[in-house]
Amino acid sequence: MGDNGRVTTIVSIQSAVAYGHVGNSAAVFPLQRLGVEVWPVYTVTFSNHTGYGAWRGPLIPANDVREVILGMHERGALDGVDAVLSGYQGGTEIGAVILDAVARVKAANPSAIYACDPVMGNAASGCFVHPDIPVLLRDQVVPNADLITPNQFELGYLTGTAPETLADTLAAVDAARAMGPSTVLVTSVLRPDRPAGMIEMLAVHGDQAWLVATPHLPMKANGSGDVTAALFTAHLLASGRVEEALAKTVSSVYALLARTLESGRRELQLVQSQEDIAHPAMEFTPQRVR
User: DSSP states of 123-157 as a string?
Assistant: First the structure.
């Protein structure tokens, strides 16, 4: 809920899969479970995520995505939107469509934010998107974002650095914020001197930086970044406090990953973890590092 009991509304422009949970198929349900009104706009409709190496279904042409957003605008729907959320960009033309949607939303509601998950790759797999997309994200999309949620690898690309230590990562975050975003959430922080067996998230806004550690689970979980970006955006809109948004997000995501690992299944056990999303256990406490 927003101010005066008004329901928070997010337009989420992302991919969709029929089987499994990535993109909007990972973001929409958690947002709804938090009581957020979420309007999904799809950029691809695939049978499954591309991590399987084979999939079927269409990449939706950028102009068709634009038409969907235009139709929403014509209904007056964009006037009450609190945030635009974007993730994996399947084609090189979709960035301009997303930025146009952001401009329309902010024209109607200047306090609305654009939350961008700049999906490019990760430390283990390297870059797995079209070679032009990281450049578009860095030069055109990220400078227009208010909140970005890169992993440590993506943060390095955006800023032309290779952050390892906490000091490196904070410096890279500052460089990213100088590009435009006021808030940065860095996932999969793997600094050499981190506590043994742990993985961290770092959230920075204003003069504050908060770090939280959770056990590093031995698994690859496609879609977990999409869930993380959605939850952090919603919690930040609700509270305005990065440390609270970080604590709630990491609690829910860790519970989701632990349940998925325990299940032995490849796809996120999202529905099975809905109570952990709606009512985070808050067992991990962020520490202020700046």
Answer: TTTEE-S-THHHHHIIIIIGGG-SEE--BHHHHHH
pLDDT of residue 4: 53
Cα separation, 122 vs 130, whole angstroms: 14
By residue count, the chain amounts to 290
Tokens describing residue 148: 């970005």
Residues contacting 241, CB < 8 A, separation 6+: none
String of DSSP letters for 24-56: HHHHHHHHHHTT-EEEEEEEEEESS-GGGS---
Question: Would you say 185 and 246 are in contact if contact means Cβ atoms under 8 Å apart?
Answer: yes
Please answer whether residues 69 and 98 qualify as being in contact, where contact means their C-beta atoms are separated by less than 8 angstroms.
Answer: no
Q: pLDDT per residue over 157-209, tens digit each?
A: 999 999 999 999 999 999 999 999 999 999 999 999 998 999 999 999 999 99
In this prediction, residue 89 carries a pLDDT of 80
Nearest CA to 187 out of 239, 121, 259, 283 is that of 121
CA dist 57 to 10, 17, 61, Å? Answer: 26, 9, 12
Buried-state track 153-168, b at ≥16 Cβ within 10 A, e below 16: bbbbbbbeeebeebeb
Q: Which parts of the chain sit beneath pLDDT 70?
A: 1-5
